[in-house]
Amino acid sequence: MAGFLVRRLLALVPLVFGITAITFALLVLAPGDPVLFLIPPEQRGSADIAQFRHELGMDRPIPVQYISMMADLFTGRLRSFGDRRPTTRQVAEALPTTLILTATSLALTGALAMPIAFISAVRPYSAVDHAATLFSLLGISLPTFWFGLLLIFFLTEQLGLLPASGIRPTGATGYSPLVIWRFLIMPTIVQALGILPVLVRYARSSLLDALSQDYVQVARSKGLAERTVLLKHVARNSLLPVLTIMALLLPFLLSGSVIVESIFALPGLGRLAVNAALSRDYPTVLTTTTIAGMLVVVSNLLADLGYLYLDPRIRHG
Amino acid sequence: MSTAAAPAVPARSAGAGLRRGPWRRFVRNPRAIAGAAIMLFFLLVAAGGRWLAPFPPSAPHVLDILHPPGGRYLLGTDDLGRDILSRVLVASRVSLAIGVLSMLVSILAGVLVGTLAGFLGGSVDGVLMRVTDVVLAIPVFFLTVAFLALFGPSVGRLIWIIGLTAWPPTARLVRVEVLALRARDFVTAVRATGASNTRIIVRHLLPNVVPVIVISATLRVGLAILTEAGLSFLGLGVQPPQPSWGNIIADGREYLGVAWWVSFFPGLCVFLAVMGFNLVGDGLRDAFDPRLQI
What we know:
The complex is a heterodimer. By secondary structure, chain A is mainly α. Chain A contains 14 helices and no strands. The termini of chain A are close together. The model of chain A has no long low-confidence stretch (mean pLDDT 84). Helices cover 75% and strands 0% of the residues of chain B. The interface between A and B is large, with 48 and 45 residues.
């Protein structure tokens, strides 16, 4: 079991290195000099520029810059080009919004996907199953940002039911569920809709797979009630891969957060990343992509631990 | 020359099978046919949209700003008085072109990686699949946004970045197929005739992987169109004044309360076009092999 964990942890190293190295390469290769963005044109004496470049450490060899930037990032010394605050603080402020939205989206997706998948798997090729397939197709084809705008049009502009921007009313602070729930409804629906078809399709095939197993035949021939067979034998055994796929959906949700947070003006990681990229704030760009990559890494690890906890064959094998 | 005659058999039999089984199943699937009709419609519009448009796409009709759908303007006008129908028609070309071309990039990359990994096996397979896993696990949209913002968005860069971040699923599918084919007797037979690896791959393996490639490609186009629309919506895709479905949706965002039609119609086009490609992709999968997990 320890060996399993160590192997999994080691496998995550290339992931973190991959995403940070690619981002850093983008920053180095990008046209235009970031130093020039930081100095107003009227103050651009060539001596100043060289001085400033030296202060930023941008006159050093590129591998050295990479290593020192990563070291600064993880120790909180890397500062945003924009407001000169540590990038870790910016991320710490943005992260709760994204994590809360991710959690509510996963919860909603799971709550919807399981019953849909269950009904369509138990009665394959029935009307419900066909409806679920059609619904999945519509969901996969739907541009979620456009769907978000439709929601804003109906629920905010026409009916005035829900707020369309921000995470909390002006003046409020914190993330109390009582304060922020109305702000989360539309973004959660949009995010959930993006991954729901994937999860339904996956859960359905996982359930069908479990239904065809010998132990289900055995359970039935023992004379167990169909209900008991389905809930105790089928559902339990097909839950495992579904839990894993939910963790693997995190990259999709994070990618989705870039767009969803910008539609609903949510102050999260995705919006921080877009704004940083648009204003060429190199340290913040590097930090947001690194943190996004690490979130994926952590969720993969959690999925592995969940597997370990739920499946004794891995624990002892 | 003795290698030329014997080996073509599996490829040819795959072609004959296509005419009998899968093709008939595809044609008899109403959803697949509906998808094909939608797909064809949008491809025709993309080809001829420029001539179908009643107005030049950027012509401002200053007296008819935010004109509701109807009258001279079938789908209404935007905040500058530009005709939405004309803009949507003209935009279809760039949106579909980016969808199809970035699909080509991702399919080429995916087939190359998948074939090499599956055929060569061993450490090559290990390294390539590791890279595939990494790309699959990275929230690539963050990188895409950073790339387009730092390098500046252009149609060419959109095609490359969308294509080069979307190949891993194709690579995995192709690898599995190639792995299975590699162990088949006909490959051993071809190898015994002294055929080179390149020849085995190009003449004997790839023709048998064509169904998987075509299905994957069709579904990729839909995803690529969605990605392009999302990026253009963020202002990092196709740049104004050139209209694209995504940037017209973005144009209408400010006027959602007073002029829903500006964002609604281009979004509907994205939805329908993507659905067309997905229906065809699903139909092809069901026709060839419903068990494929694509």
